[in-house]
């Protein structure tokens, strides 16, 4: 079977999602070609030490609430870090490569330093919030709602607190540093996305959105109003229209920024002299197209 034929068969099997998460929306806004590589081509990416540390820290902050309030102490949370790392490693053995040495062994000092950093992030949380006084209504909550347009919004919310008055607070932990004021809009976009989904699901606009930055020890809060969330919905619909347009035309533009330094796909990116792989979706000639000038189409 030739390469083209294989690509055609792959294309006919490739379902196109009609859902959007905050991270995929952020990918498209950051660089449409990056979105294509991740969502359409599904290219593998190397595990990152920072992202994996974030996963371990999130797991500790979530599971600590399994304990009675009086046991939710900093030393106990710190002590949970190695166990959560082992649990994650058992589920994803490929993460061992983060601490691999050239001769195929493991570097215990690098691992110990990385665990120490995770423990420090967990400890800093106790300077920002007091888990002995919190009883989250939800932790790691999966949310999903379909808009009238047919677009489904989905994602995971780290924590939802509900006050006795019924007011809802949406909390997200970040293991990095708080962004400079001029970049806070990007961080809040994710929170407004969650607020919109919760509002659509439960009929109540969350009272407060709270970002907890463990890297710098900052808490950023924002109180949304319905009109803003409606604006977020319009923005998401426009974003989705742009994604569909790119999917149909195969026109995924690269957008070079300083974040390219963290992109796993530089070797395939025209901005860095690379060539993307053949577009995996089928070409569907449009009736108005002159012969030989088909459009790349959704299947
Ligand atoms: S290297 Fe930069 S421009 Fe190229 S795909 Fe990655 S994020 Fe986009």
Q: Short description, anyone?
A:
The protein is of the alpha/beta class and about 300 residues long.
Observed structural traits:
globular, 8 helices, 8 strands, single chain, binds iron/sulfur cluster, Lambda Exonuclease, Chain A, alpha/beta, two-stranded antiparallel sheet, 299 residues, disordered N terminus
Q: Could you please describe the fold and organization of this structure?
A:
InterPro entries: PDDEXK-like_dom_sf, PDDEXK_AddAB-type, Restrct_endonuc-II-like. This is PD-(D/E)XK nuclease family protein. Keywords: ATP-binding, DNA damage, DNA repair, Helicase, Hydrolase, Nucleotide-binding. It is a single chain. By secondary structure, this protein is α/β, with parallel strands linked by helices. It folds into 3 domains: 15-45 and 237-296, no CATH class; 49-133, no CATH class; 138-224, Lambda Exonuclease, Chain A (Alpha-Beta Complex), CATH 3.90.320.10. The protein has helices at residues 3-13, 22-30, 32-40, 49-63, 74-91, 108-128, 184-202, 226-249, and strands at residues 19-20, 138-146, 152-162, 168-174, 208-213, 218-222, 283-284, 295-296. The strands form 2 sheets. Strands 1, 2, 3, 4, 5 and 6 form a 6-stranded mixed β-sheet that branches. β2 and β3 form a beta hairpin. Bound molecules: iron/sulfur cluster. Iron/sulfur cluster is lined by residues 31, 33-34, 254-256, 260, 263, 265-266, 269, 271-272. The site of iron/sulfur cluster (SF4) has 13 residues, from α3.
């Amino acid at each position: 079977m030739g390469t083209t034929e294989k690509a055609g068969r792959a294309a006919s099997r490739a379902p196109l999602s009609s859902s959007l998460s905050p991270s995929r929306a952020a990918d498209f806004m950051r660089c449409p070609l990056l979105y294509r590589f991740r969502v359409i081509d599904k290219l593998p990416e190397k595990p990152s030490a920072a992202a994996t540390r974030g996963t371990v820290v999130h797991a500790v902050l979530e599971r600590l609430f399994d304990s009675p309030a009086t046991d939710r102490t900093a030393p106990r949370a710190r002590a949970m870090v190695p166990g959560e790392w082992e649990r994650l490693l058992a589920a994803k053995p490929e993460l061992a490569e983060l601490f691999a040495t050239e001769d195929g062994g493991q570097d215990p000092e690098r691992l110990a330093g990385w665990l120490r950093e995770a423990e420090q992030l967990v400890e800093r949380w106790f300077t920002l919030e007091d888990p002995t006084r919190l009883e989250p209504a939800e932790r790691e909550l999966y949310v999903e709602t379909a808009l009238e347009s047919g677009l489904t919004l989905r994602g995971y919310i780290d924590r939802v607190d509900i006050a006795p008055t019924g007011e809802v607070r949406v909390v997200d932990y970040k293991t990095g540093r708080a962004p400079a004021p001029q970049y806070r809009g990007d961080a809040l976009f994710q929170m407004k996305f969650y607020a919109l989904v919760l509002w659509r699901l439960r009929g109540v606009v969350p009272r407060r959105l709270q970002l907890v930055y463990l890297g710098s020890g900052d808490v950023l809060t924002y109180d949304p109003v319905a009109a803003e969330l409606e604006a977020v919905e319009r923005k998401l619909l426009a974003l989705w229209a742009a994604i569909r347009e790119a999917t149909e035309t195969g026109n995924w533009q690269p957008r070079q920024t300083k974040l390219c330094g963290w992109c796993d796909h530089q070797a395939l990116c025209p901005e860095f002299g690379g060539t993307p792989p053949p577009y995996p979706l089928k070409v569907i000639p449009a009736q108005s197209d002159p012969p030989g000038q088909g459009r790349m189409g959704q299947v």
